[in-house]
Amino acid sequence: MTQENTRSQRFLVSMTPKMIREAARNSKALIILPTGAIEQHGPHLPVGVDSLLGTSFVSRLIAGLNEDEPVWFAPPIWIGKSNEHDGYPGTLSLSGDSFRAQVLSTAEQVKQMGFSRIALLNTHGGNQPVLQTTVLEIETSFGIKASILDSHPITDLDPREEQFGIHAGQYETSLMLAICPDMVEMDKADCYWMDDRFPKGSFAAENHFATFAWKIADFTPSGTLGDATLASASDGERWVTGVIDVLLKQIREKVSG
After folding, report:
1. What's the rounded Cα separation, in Å, for the pair 233 and 182?
2. What is the mean pLDDT of the chain?
């Protein structure tokens, strides 16, 4: 079997029923379910940024896995909960309930195949609140181990960009310059900040322990949050490498645990 065939057979959709049954016999086998989004990413990036990044991460993860590591990838859910981006052309969104139901259904059928571990590789912040409660429901309802992989590496971003550059800013634009440079229109890159609209300390960005409901249009007319003009392909490549390093470490810990 060629290396290319071995890599393609990391995907459940590329495997025969017999191959899936054999893979599930390994009690340490891990299924990874990518989740992303289709939504606006400012005037300079395509609407598929989150899903394109997820596809790139999966490809690089497969290249980095050893042949004997029992890790397989479920078909991705590339339309997520993106209603905070309503009103911008190109945004596709599921309700929180519909998105949760897709994740639960996939996990249940992974269990029926015989697998006992699933990890979610999420590349859209708006999905995170739904996923955080859903992983607990997966474990309690189906009796399989479930978790969310952390795909954000340590960066050398400015503190303001790190905290508030949460959408189409320097970080995401740099990642796209590294993986899909022909899809980035840097001459249209712009800069908007969440904390320009509200007094400092009066709100928290996503992934904070306490936040509030918001829509992207509350903060930016273009859809950008952060300074996309500072993006570079070299930074993006370093950060993509960092993403893969942290993901491989987590995956190997879950497989060996």
Report:
1. 12
2. 91
Task: Select from 27, 63, 45 the least CA-distant residue to 236.
Answer: 45
What's the pLDDT tens digit per position in 217-252?
888 999 999 999 999 999 999 999 999 999 999 999
Nearest to 72 by CA among 105, 133, 116, 104: 116
Residues 257 and 251: their CA atoms lie apart, in Å, by: 10
**Taking residues 89-99, what's their average pLDDT?**
94
End-to-end CA distance of the chain: 29
**In angstroms, rounded to a whole number, what is the distance separating the alpha carbons of residues 150 and 114?**
25
Helix (H) or strand (E) holding 34: strand 30-35
Instruction: Please name which of 56, 32, 51 lies closest in space to residue 250, comparing C-alpha atoms.
Output: 32
Q: Encode 216-232: b = buried (16+ Cβ within 10 Å), e = exposed.
A: beebbebbbbbbbebbe
**CA 48 to centroid of chain Cα atoms:** 12
Confidence of residue 212 (pLDDT cuts 50, 70, 90): low
**pLDDT at residue 7 in the model:** 62
